[in-house]
Write a structure and sequence with these properties.
Blueprint: E1 7-13, H1 17-23, E2 25-26, H2 28-31, H3 42-49, E3 62-66, H4 72-80, E4 85-91, E5 101-103, E6 114-115, H5 126-129, H6 139-148, E7 152-156, E8 158-159, E9 164-169, H7 172-180, E10 186-189
Parallel strand pairs: 9-10
Antiparallel strand pairs: 1-4, 2-8, 3-7, 4-9, 5-6, 5-7
């Protein structure tokens, strides 16, 4: 089942790594009580704050992992934030945890469908989720693909640090930052994952 899922992915500022290694990846609601560097987009979080999973919890009580973090959200962050980012690689076994929900597109979308693991079989557009690009000549098709490529795996409350198997970074500089943050798992320098873009860093 879901053999195409090799790993799950989580976009995060490297400055948050020490806290994540100690406390795990926290849902938005829990993270709001902990000092951290947020790269969340305000207008997106406003939409997510109004969502509740049918038969489940409010959306902000789930950790949102991506099937493919090389998506419009990451592209926007790479253009507009100045924090070093990494993509944490999460053990695919997390999808089998109790209460996990899969989405067929961005969870804040008006057109999203929420599935249990068994319900999602055959329902996700795998080709478009794992596509390299979402640009299309047809604007409507592009908007839809931008949402689908952001399909999520929603994990209630927390993903513990033991499920983090590694990380992608965009440069050797970011790898050094991640190592200094205490990250002790495999680090892959993978510029293409980040659209071969470098973070525009603030003056320190």
């Amino acid at each position: 089942m879901h053999e195409y899922i090799q790993e799950l992915q989580y976009i995060v500022a490297i400055t948050n790594i020490p806290s994540i290694l100690e406390n795990g990846i926290l849902c938005y609601e829990m993270a709001s009580t902990v000092a951290h560097t947020s790269v969340a987009l305000g207008e997106v979080q406003e939409r997510r704050a109004k969502k509740r999973i049918p038969g489940g919890l409010p959306l902000h009580r789930y950790v949102n992992l991506y099937l493919n973090a090389r998506n419009p959200m990451l592209f926007r962050l790479m253009k507009n934030v100045s924090e070093d980012l990494c993509i944490l690689r999460i053990d695919r076994g997390v999808i089998e945890h109790l209460g996990v929900v899969l989405t067929d597109r961005n969870a804040s979308s008006d057109y999203v469908t929420f599935y249990t693991l068994s319900e999602s079989v055959g329902k996700l557009d795998v080709e478009r989720i794992y596509a390299r690009y979402w640009k299309h000549d047809d604007q409507i098709e592009e908007w839809e693909h931008k949402s689908i490529i952001c399909a999520e795996v929603l994990v209630p409350h927390i993903v513990t640090a033991k499920h983090i198997v590694g990380a992608y970074v965009t440069s050797e500089h970011s790898k050094e930052s991640l190592l200094r943050a205490g990250f002790d798992r495999e680090i892959l320098v993978y510029p293409d994952m980040f659209f071969n873009m470098q973070i525009r860093r603030r003056e320190r």
